[in-house]
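[User] I wish I could look at a protein chain and see how it folds. I have put the entry right below:
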Amino acid sequence: MFLVFTVSILLAGRVFSILPTYVHLHTPEEINETNYVILDKPNICNKTRSTEDDLIIAIKTAAHDHIQRNYIRQAWLTEVRKLNIAYVFILGSVTNDTLLRKLLREDSRYNGLVIGKPVDNYYNLTLKTIFTVAWVKAHCPSRWLIYVDDDVFLNGNNTIEFIQSMKNVTDRAIYCCREWNGPIIRDPNSPLYMPESVFKPNFYPDYCTGSGYLIPPNILHSLHEAAISNLTQPKLWIEHLFMTGLIAQHLSIKIVYLKLMCRESSQIWLYNRSIIVQNMGKRKEFLQNWSQIIGHNVSFKVVRSKLNRLTINHSSIDMAGHILLAKYNSGTAEIKLKIQYFDIDILNRYRPATAPLLLVSMSTWILYYFVFNRNLIHMCIISILWICKNFCITVVIRRIHAMSHH
């Protein structure tokens, strides 16, 4: 009896050991995090075109990859801006303060980042996708959503033309380059391995490739509700399979093959006859491929910007729960805001209330430094003044920080 028990334990350990670390089914707690936004753009769709054929472009991107975002801004987004089409970069939350400050500086310059609460991680893409659909449902409910990777080239003109051609079509469908429902790979050595314990059917439903897909506004609400429902299981980590495969099948939404979204990098010359061209690479390769489209070499500018003033306000809107809004305003000091385990810790050095103190202390420093020839006694006085100035600023900061909690 003991031998049977021991063998069973060993076999169970062997089965467990062959499961890759990325095999993860999202929990209800993780799904709930898709209801929260850290950095919001609630008015983005109010500032652009307002006709019924409107479009919102959501670009999924890794939080750390600001270089790729800058390449996109200076490549195909230049044409998108000319067409006055709304677009956002979708990111997950970060726990690194330095990276958070960089993101806030980036957003203060471009005003195009939306940060959801789910942690920014490659295997949290399903959570990022659910968050994106929820965010569009809340802020741009009458618009088509095109959700794309950050290594595609998107043709804004052709996308709008396609949407206009679908004005009178009321089909419940998602338009994309479709993956065919071939047999599921059960080989543990394959990067596409799917354990039978996680997903038992031998075939996937039809679903879209992850490079991009078009979602009409008439299915946004049902798509989001089904994605967060406990009735739709399993919550797979493969975002395009989960959202456009399992969820679409559950809702009887058709997956419509669209050749205009199936161009590969070898077909870059078809960009002007496409909606998207897939797999255009990152950074240098991305740049070289865009140069082929515009017909001449381009060198992208490295843009640096300073973070001005940031206020993080508690507000809520109806997006299946409360949402935290972060907005730029004219003044704040130190804010520490906790959303369960997620902290934002931001220190702005310069606030209008502390500017006079800073000016007086610095002027006094300069006066003593030059007039009294930097002797020891006066340098001590300078040091005392400097300490007093820092003390005053600290008191003001703590006062504002305390007021922000009331």
Remarks:
- The CA atoms of residues 28 and 74 lie 39 Å apart.
- The domain at 19-294 is CATH 3.90.550.50 (Spore Coat Polysaccharide Biosynthesis Protein SpsA; Chain A).
- Residues 1-17, 305-354, 401-406 have pLDDT under 50 and may be disordered.
- The first strand starts at residue 37 and ends at 39.
